[in-house]
Amino acid sequence: MSSTEDEQLADLKDWWSRNGKPLVTGGLLALVIVFGWQAFHKYQSNQSQGASMLYQQLLETTLTPDGKPDVARVADLANKLKSEYAGTAYSQFGGLFVAKVAVDNGKLDDAAVELKAIVDKPANATLGEVARQRLAQVLAAQGKVDDALKLLEGDSDKAFLASREELKGDLLVQQGRTDDARAAYEKAKAGLSDEAAVGGLQIKLDDLAKGGCVT
């Protein structure tokens, strides 16, 4: 892997660590964050205990001294989720987890396969959008920025508008399309109320104004 590819992979891992925590860490807290307490309890009661247990086991693979899961164990549990509970939210949460493990191990092709399967047939809109944004990041890390941008075209749920537009801005910066990137960042900024997040976008906008590099 070249130094450029190493840098792209490092950027991808950093983006996921900042934007993906609710969906890949914290055990069942992930489900709580996505669906809310009431929806979570309803969801839990309607789903198979078997799927719940498998998903728990999958998350627990990170409970190692170095925090790195056993890749073979992850694959085994994920395959069981897919075969026994295909198309369910639990199965697709597992797919997101497997994709993250693949990225952490530099296996971008494997990550792309996992994410595309969710994008093509999401169990719900939330999972579909999260997988879409992560797949765009993976494609960009593979040097397929045009494909990544195409994946982010069209309307997005309001809850994900800011993160999608910020990601688009980052990708457009990579292509040197500063005017388009600025427009995307402004759109993302308009969709945010969190001052800290707005501040981060403002830094990117200021860097563009100065002709600097957005990170």
What does this 3D model show about the protein?
- The chain is mainly alpha-helical.
- The protein has 12 helices and no strands.
- The longest helix is centred in the N-terminal third of the chain and has 18 residues, at 29-46.
Query: What is the β-strand count?
Result: 0
Radius of gyration: 18 Å
Percent strand equals under 5%
Mean pLDDT: 82
Question: What is the SS-derived class?
Answer: mainly alpha
String of helices and strands: HHHHHHHHHHHH
Q: Indicate the overall shape.
A: globular
Helix-residue proportion: over 70%
Helical region count?
12
Measured distance between first and last alpha carbons? 22 Å
Q: Describe the largest sheet.
A: none
Q: Poorly predicted ranges (pLDDT <50, ≥5 residues)? A: 21-29
Q: How is this structure best summarized?
A:
The protein is built from 12 helices and no strands. The chain has 215 residues and is mostly helical.
Key descriptive features of the protein:
single chain, 215 residues, mainly alpha, 0% strand
Blueprint of the fold:
Layout: H1 3-19, H2 21-24, H3 29-46, H4 49-60, H5 71-84, H6 89-104, H7 108-120, H8 125-141, H9 145-151, H10 158-174, H11 178-190, H12 195-210
Helix pairs in contact: 1-8, 4-5, 4-6, 5-6, 6-7, 7-8, 8-9, 8-10, 10-11, 11-12
